[in-house]
Backbone:
């Protein structure tokens, strides 16, 4: 998405090369490993006999870095044009954003607003992740799910989650 | 007979009204999520895991176990009627099962799948009851070095038997080990990778990770793809009984599937999915009706469906007897035990015989319930298939949210799960199998502890792993697996095994 539209042919080729699954997976592993190395830079390493707090994390990060590099090289060497990621037709931004947002909102509101209102918010925001859900259907689903959640978790299991806002 | 005494004890526990209810609930939920594509047993068990804290440990385990093997029953229904796998373990059932349905033999296919599963369930329950006690005795003689080597072997076997690229699977295990490090280092008391967040000093809960990666990740993945059309071949199933000819052809396939599934289930990295793929491949090679495969061969339904149920159940053996999870579901079962403060390991059988045998006995009871749930009541599940995913995912989303909130009654867990959800989606896009990550996550702390203990026993001499015969044998086994998977001939066979469709 970040690439400019009027990029020339070499850039498109580069993009295709990078957009291979194994290439991206390798880059992801390397990025996590580097981040881990950075985060554990101040932890004491110790020796193999008396391992410090930083020994195992760093060891694992180096192994992950090596593996990430190998996976990436494998991606580069793939014979055909690789298996590129699905085209823009199957955009995933919508579910990624709305599913994440609905959970964040639920997490932040459950204690203050209680079960009923936070479920309403969860369903309201979460419903935006999919296309083709009519408002009335959404309300019906929310009502059903609130009743279900109340029945199972509050009535059945006796969880101590506030049902209504606390003030 | 000790076996019968033990089973009698187990039945006395499993037949209490409360445990019967939880076995039924587990079987019902298992069938439900098995029938519905888009949600699997790993995500479901992760969601319900925190709730088992409020139950008796035995009841909780009985329910969670029921979900796992119940899903194997339910998965075949969708595979046969809609040509979509309800579960990954019923992918191969689609091939011949759906063809049978299109030829108007949906009822026979469903019955063969359910009865095959039932037979496999009974046999594997007996296998667990027979082989778990001696294995637990062996496990009790294990010291820290043996445990460490066993876990090394387990992780390597899990990689070899996993789907897709070996390199990526190893990387995912390392990633899981790294996530497992988050929190306080038990040895020095220093914190690692906590980003200054107080809630992270206790580490990340396995349920949070699994709900994020499997539950939420799957929701995002499913929503990012256009909704598949679910065309039922037969909305009314008329003839539920297979013909005499079917029975004649099916029973050897069921036997083979059960045997293969039982063996593969015990192996680390094995379980339901691997068993069903392997059983289908074996049946296709050995059947006298090989040409019919892909065109509605009844053996092509019977073998993988028996195998996946057998594999699902025998994968409990290493978890129950050694405390070592062989697949992601067993990793969660370990999580369920630790929630109740029960140390997983060989001592469970002697310290908590009621729980141990009660769970085993409940598997047989659960299988009886499942045949009834899946055959006479098949119509109800067919109706459920008509619920579109855009309603279903809202319910899954809600159960994920409440499940993860109850892990620690904190909003932080919910935010973490949301993060792992995106991570799970990215892994799915990049074809990185997430199951090895959960295994690494659960085994990481166990391995570290046993490594440290072994080092203390030997006062820092790493040769202890090679000096002890059992440990040496396990490590040689691990090395042999590494060599095997590097051999080109084996490698192509391995890829072939997972590419049946």
Residues:
């Amino acid at each position: 998405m970040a690439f400019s539209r009027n990029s020339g042919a070499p850039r498109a080729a580069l993009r295709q090369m990078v957009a291979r699954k194994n290439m991206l997976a390798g880059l992801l592993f390397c990025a996590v490993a580097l981040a881990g190395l950075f985060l554990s830079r101040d932890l004491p390493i110790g020796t193999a006999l008396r391992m410090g707090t930083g020994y195992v994390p760093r060891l694992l990060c180096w192994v992950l870095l090596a593996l990430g590099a190998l996976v990436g090289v494998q991606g580069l060497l793939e014979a055909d044009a690789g298996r590129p990621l699905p085209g823009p037709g199957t955009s995933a931004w919508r579910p990624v954003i709305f599913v994440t947002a609905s959970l964040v909102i639920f997490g932040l509101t459950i204690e203050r607003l209680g079960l009923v209102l936070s479920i309403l918010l969860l369903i309201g925001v979460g419903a935006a992740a999919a296309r083709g859900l009519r408002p009335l259907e959404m309300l019906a689903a929310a009502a059903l799910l609130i009743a279900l959640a109340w029945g199972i978790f509050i009535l059945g299991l006796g969880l101590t989650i506030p049902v209504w806002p606390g003030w | 007979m000790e076996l019968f005494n033990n089973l009698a004890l187990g039945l006395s526990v499993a037949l209490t009204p409360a445990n019967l209810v939880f076995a039924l609930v587990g079987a019902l939920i298992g069938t439900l999520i098995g029938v519905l594509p888009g949600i699997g047993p790993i995500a479901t068990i992760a969601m319900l895991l925190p709730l088992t804290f409020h139950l008796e440990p035995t009841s909780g385990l009985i329910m969670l176990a029921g979900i796992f093997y119940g899903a194997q029953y339910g998965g075949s229904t969708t595979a046969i009627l809609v040509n979509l796998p309800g579960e990954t373990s019923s992918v191969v059932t689609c091939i011949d099962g759906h063809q049978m349905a299109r030829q108007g033999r949906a009822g026979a296919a469903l019955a063969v799948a359910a009865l095959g599963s039932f037979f496999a369930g009974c046999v594997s329950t007996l296998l667990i009851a027979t082989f778990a006690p001696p294995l637990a005795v062996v496990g009790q003689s294990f010291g820290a070095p043996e445990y460490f080597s066993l876990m090394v072997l387990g992780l390597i076997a899990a990689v070899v038997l996993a789907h897709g690229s070996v390199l990526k699977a190893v990387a995912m295990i390392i990633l899981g080990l790294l996530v497992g490090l988050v929190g306080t280092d038990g040895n020095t008391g220093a914190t690692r990778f906590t980003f200054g967040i107080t809630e992270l000093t206790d580490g990340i809960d396995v349920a949070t990770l699994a709900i994020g990666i499997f539950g939420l990740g799957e929701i995002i993945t499913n929503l990012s793809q256009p909704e598949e059309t679910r065309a039922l071949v037969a909305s009314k199933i008329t003839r539920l009984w297979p013909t005499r000819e079917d029975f004649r052809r099916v029973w050897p396939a069921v036997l083979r599937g059960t045997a293969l599934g039982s063996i593969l289930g015990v192996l680390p990295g094995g379980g339901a999915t691997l068993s069903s793929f392997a059983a289908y491949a074996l049946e296709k090679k050995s059947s006298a009706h090989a040409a019919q495969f892909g065109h509605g061969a009844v053996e092509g339904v019977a073998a993988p469906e028996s195998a996946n149920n057998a594999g699902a159940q025998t994968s409990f053996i290493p978890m129950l007897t050694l405390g070592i999870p062989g697949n992601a579901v067993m990793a969660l079962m370990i999580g369920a035990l630790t929630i109740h403060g029960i140390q997983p390991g060989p001592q469970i059988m002697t310290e908590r015989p009621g729980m141990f045998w009660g769970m085993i006995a409940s598997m047989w009871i659960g299988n009886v319930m499942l045949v009834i749930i899946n055959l006479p009541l098949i119509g109800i599940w067919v109706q459920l298939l008509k619920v579109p995913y855009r309603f279903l995912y809202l319910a899954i989303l809600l159960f994920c949210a409440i499940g993860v909130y109850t892990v620690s009654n904190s909003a932080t867990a919910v935010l973490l799960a949301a993060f792992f959800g995106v991570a799970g989606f990215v892994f799915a896009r990049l074809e990185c199998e997430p199951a090895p990550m959960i295994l690494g996550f659960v085994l990481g702390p166990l391995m570290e502890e046993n490594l440290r203990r072994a080092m203390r026993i030997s006062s820092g001499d790493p040769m202890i792993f090679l000096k002890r015969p059992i440990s040496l044998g396990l490590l040689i086994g691990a090395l042999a697996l590494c060599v095997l998977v590097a051999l080109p001939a084996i490698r192509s066979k391995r890829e072939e095994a997972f590419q049946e469709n």
Residues 1-7 of chain A have pLDDT under 50 and may be disordered.
